[in-house]
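To: structure subgroup
Subject: Chain for Friday's discussion

All,

I'm putting the inputs and outputs inline so they're searchable in the archive.
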Amino acid sequence: MTECACGSGSGFDECCGPIIGGAPAPTAEALMRSRFTAFVNGDLDHIENTHAAAVRDDFNRSAAESTANTVEWVGLEIRDTVDGGVDDATGVVEFTASFKKDGEVLIHHERSDFRREDGRWVYVDGAMNPKGKPVRVEKVGRNEPCPCGSGKKYKKCCGA
């Protein structure tokens, strides 16, 4: 049994193998994992066939082949998923894919959009190096109550 390249810890035949072989992916994340595994194995037909119909013609097979032939895939990390479950119509998967090129380890970071077409999950598009929501920081005045909940003034507590 060969461990699946997607990093799930399962064997290829139980994990991404059936999806790459044509079985429908149960979730958007499962499709994402199978697409990564297909890149690792050089199965570009799966990559092309799992694009949404509206963007399938935009698939640049020669660029994908060049990438597949010049990098060594190291690993996949799923960072976040939004929807994309067995009962959902759309989903988002944020991931990083690590790879070696010319001896250097690089990371591809993407937030990918998926949807169901004819009951099957497909890749719609993705945003490279997505930025998170900006963090708002509120200043605490010196004489205001400390936000830690101690009941003391900020200047006598955490602001000291």
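Points worth raising on Friday:
The first helix runs from residue 17 to 20.
Strands lie at 72-83, 90-101, 104-117, 120-128.

D.
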